[in-house]
Amino acid sequence: MGRHLAYLSRLFYSCVGVIIYTLPLGIAALVAFLVGWAGAIVSMDQIYYVGPIASMVGQDGSDLGIWVGMAWAMLVFPPLRWLELKRFNR
Asked: How many domains does the chain have?
């Protein structure tokens, strides 16, 4: 029984090691998330805070946080992912 468990544990760790080393690092996703988050902050119009981009729209401002944050993240992620693929090959 001990031999079988040793074999299965070795097999499991070898498979997990292969999976871990083929997954992307996620650096591009993290940076795109942070850029989108910053875009949402500077363009939100709430009672407690009005961002500089939101205050430029109309007299009372406009809450564009979700749209600007999404657009910035969508624009930043593909080039960052390309750089991540070139640098780390995964």
From this structure: 1
Which tokens sit at 50?
A: 């009005």
First to last CA, the chain: 38
The one-letter amino acid at 41? I
Residue 51 lies in a domain: yes
Specify the length of the chain in residues: 90
Q: Answer whether residue 4 is part of any domain.
A: no
Q: Is residue 46 part of a domain?
A: yes
Three-state SS at 45: strand
Write down the number of H helices and E strands in the chain.
Answer: 4, 0
Q: 9-37: per-residue pLDDT in tens? A: 666 666 666 666 777 889 999 999 999 99
